[in-house]
Amino acid sequence: MTQHQPRHPAAPRPSARARPVPPARRPARAGRPPRASRPSRSPRPARPLGPSRLLARARRAWDRPLTAYYVVLGTGLLITLLGLVMVFSASQIQALRYELPATYYFRKQLVAAALGTVLLLLAARMSVRFLRALTYPFLAVSIVLLLLVQVPGVGVEVNGSTNWISVAGPFQLQPSEFGKLALVLWGADLLARKGERRLLTQWRHLLVPLLPGGLLVCGLVMVGGDMGTVMILLAILFALLWLAGAPTRLFAGAVSAAVALSVFFIATSPHRMDRLACLGASDPGPNDRCWQALHGIYALASGGWFGSGLGASVEKWGELPEPHTDFIFAVTGEELGLAGTLSVLGLFAALGYAGVRVAGRTEDPFVRYAAGGVTAWLMVQTVINIGGVLGLLPIAGVPLPLFSYGGSALLPTMFAVGLLIAFARSDPAVRAALASRPTGRRLPLPRRLTGRAGRNRSTQQPDLER
Fold it and tell me: Which of 6, 263, 337, 359 lies at a CB distance of 3.0 to 4.6 Å from 306, suitable for a disulfide?
């Protein structure tokens, strides 16, 4: 047995009711109010958002993985929707002039936009391997269609250019629009395969067969008289060469040869010389050769800051030829004003910048070439169209991408936007960000419901009074 030590007689016996004595408080200093009577400190005011902080926040937001993905998707759909609205507004008088229903052009454009949306969704879900397998068949089909344009009885002449094929009734197909997409995909696949074999350091492998194939497509389009489309095809070729790292001498030589050929084709065509002479024109000129360019400026000038109102354009009443195709930007400026035109320019600028980002952040050579080629195609065509409306460039007769009327131009363009979305999704960081998104949002529950009482929420109600 263990023996207990005897308790010291002087030690007091602990009691259950004994309470600890609080420590003595320090006396307040002279002239200092007690802690309870001190005035409460006001919260520190938030720092104002200056230009530097706003720029830093915008830069952080732009550096997020999903930014380019959402920008391409959002700008592409917004431009298409705004284009549908403007086609409906700009084409009514044109349709009535030809004794057609007022919504004739709008309905055709709406059908093309619906089909283009399906193509955009298919392209956005298409794998890179499957897309590369379609490049050569797509190019072959485009060349066959371009050859059929020159067959008598098959090709249709529109505004002096034979670049159309009658499909069924009023529906016509312009193969040169599909040739742009085919050239981008074929050139990207060709350069990617040669880059994998490290052959792009040699001029012969860099130019052949890319340059002969591109010149073949340009020649077939040029036979039909559409020089504006040829300029866009050449811009695609130059963009592919630039992305492939072509030497400066080679690139400068190719640009000089293209400029020389352009000067030759312009000098040998009176129609193109008249368009060149209308740069900065202030009067219609002899035989009203600058009528279209001049009234495009009139439409923009009469719009003011916020326009005359949707549907209230005056120039589309027979004064401005082709108000729903080549000069739809002028009608937009007249009806929506400077605010509307700057909004359109901002959307195109955002789309182009997002395309450059997709091309610059990928590790796949094919994706880099294809994304760069598509971005160059869309941006150069936008500059040519808007530059012609503003009188800064000759009128080339090319539509504004995703905006102007024309199903043949809208379908491949929306497919190209879908490819940009697919290329943005191919980034590993984007795939990880998309996979981590929650499938659905759950309503936040009180803590009382998440415990034992939350297992039988149908019979127990939270005590809201507490």
Answer: 337
Q: Specify the pLDDT at position 456.
A: 43
**67 Cβ contact list (under 8 Å, min separation 6):** 61, 354, 357
Q: Could you tell me the two tokens for 244?
A: 């492939």
DSSP summary character for residue 159: T
The residues that bridge with 187 in the sheet, in sequence order, are: none
Taking the C-alpha atoms of residue 120 and residue 138, their distance in angstroms, rounded to an integer, is 17
DSSP state of 244: T
Q: How is 139-154 classified by DSSP, letter by letter?
A: HHHHHHHHHHHTSTTT
Q: Count Cβ atoms within 10 A of the Cβ of residue 181 and give its class: 0-12 exposed, 13-18 middle, 19 or more buried.
A: buried
| C-alpha dihedral (249, 368, 350, 337), degrees to nearest 10 | 60
Give dist(CA 29, CA 458) in Å, integer. Answer: 60
Residue 54 CA: distances (Å) to CA of 43, 60, 108, 351:
23, 10, 44, 22
Question: Encoding tokens for residue 18?
Answer: 């004994």
User: How far is Cα 356 from Cα 424, in angstroms, rounded to an integer?
Assistant: 11
Half-sphere exposure (Cβ direction) of 326: Cα atoms closer than 13 Å: 21
- In angstroms, rounded to a whole number, what is the distance separating the alpha carbons of residues 255 and 246? 12
Cβ-based neighbour number of residue 429 at 10 Å: 11
Buried b / exposed e over 103-132, threshold 16 CB at 10 Å, is ebbbebbeebbeebeebbeebbebebeebb
Report the chain's C-alpha Rg in angstroms.
34
One-letter amino acid of 434? L
Q: Tell me the average pLDDT across 305-334.
A: 92
101 vs 328: CA distance, rounded Å: 19
Joined together, the tokens standing for residue 38 give 């001190």
Q: What is the pLDDT of residues 5-55, one digit of tens each?
A: 545 445 555 554 555 555 555 555 555 555 555 555 556 555 666 678 777
Question: What tens digit of pLDDT does each residue of 237-285 get?
Answer: 999 999 998 888 888 888 888 889 888 988 888 888 888 888 887 788 7
CB 101 within 8 A of CB 95: yes
Give the residue among 377, 355, 436 at the shortest CA–CA distance from 73.
355
Report whether pLDDT(382) > 80. yes
